[in-house]
Amino acid sequence: MNFLFLLLSCPNLDQTGSLYSDLALACSKEGHCVTIVTRAAEGQNTGIYKEAGITLLRVKTPRHEGVKSFWQKGLALVMTPFLYKRAYKRYLKNLPVDVIFMPTPPVTFINCVTYIRNRTNARFYLILRDIHPQCFRRKGVHLNPLADRYLSWKAQKAYAEADYIGCMSPQNMSYLQMIAPNINPSKIVLLPNWLRTVEYVKPDQTVRMKYGLSDKIVAIFGGTIGLAQGIENLIRLAQHCRDNHRVIFLIIGNGIRKDQLIKMADECRLTNMRFLNSMPREEYECLLRTADIGLVSLDNNYRVPTCPSKVIEYMAMKVPVIAMINRNNDFGSFYIDRSRIGFWSDDTDFEKAYRYFDSLLINSDLRRACGEQGYAFYRSHFTADEIYRQLMQQLSTNGE
Fold first, then answer.
1. From CA 310, how far away is CA 247, in angstroms rounded?
2. Is residue 298 within 8 Å of 336, Cβ to Cβ?
């Protein structure tokens, strides 16, 4: 089959990977013709590129990553689909396409999808992750009413036009039916998060020496540090352990609340928190393998059901998990309870979170058991190859 992925960003496939590039590579490995349309890297011109055997149309667009101005980022996301469409007309207009994959965010690509569908008669698979504009509202971002209506219109249009809508969990599916009651429920399907198939590699402890972590119990948080992440939970855990000088909370990543988190740690005089910027996947995974506990945190004000993909990385690296999550979210039951990789609590139940954290802290056998259980579950449920198999089962039906 001929698959076209419309992605907001994609790393160089010869060097590293990401959630969606892992899936694209799994499809390519099975013999499908895969093409990716995505933004160009810094200093790269619009054009066709070959990476890891896959054709990419990289499009020069305004920068949206790392932009602190909400409006500047919003303008870039509005302009990008027009630039993608123009580049598609120039470079790919004769490309046969059977299925178009478009993840959210953003929902603003839907006009580009519609144009390609009309030319190719392709089916449209919407990979639903962030649900906009509801996510903005729940994050406390007050959109201009015009912007809110615009995003709502785009989202409803995407739901209506999709032949398949892949959701991260059963509660995610139910939430979508609630906010889009007019769409056919039969096209709402389960599509959990995934990671490329990883063979477990024994941790290289020398990386701990590089980062000054020798003889420490490392609780790691990796990924976006934004409005949904509940950074106050990380501060509370660090405060809970401030007298245990063996424990280090290692925060890796960037985001609009990182500076605020660092300031909070300074104000609380938390010397047990260390911060690193985002790093290449290979280096991050090398460091992650040596971690003792993996942290997941979601702000309780963030009421949209969501499932952070970092938990799959923790599973693949045999890192046990403590999760502090928002209410009305089945992330804990669907990802953590089923895999038995660790423990979770409502992010307002601090005492419960402390008990779970302490139980992993003092019991290395429990940490090891949780890590092994999570890894086994990942291999059977959450590899990109397994998700590819589920996708092909779904595509074998006719959709709506």
1. 21
2. no
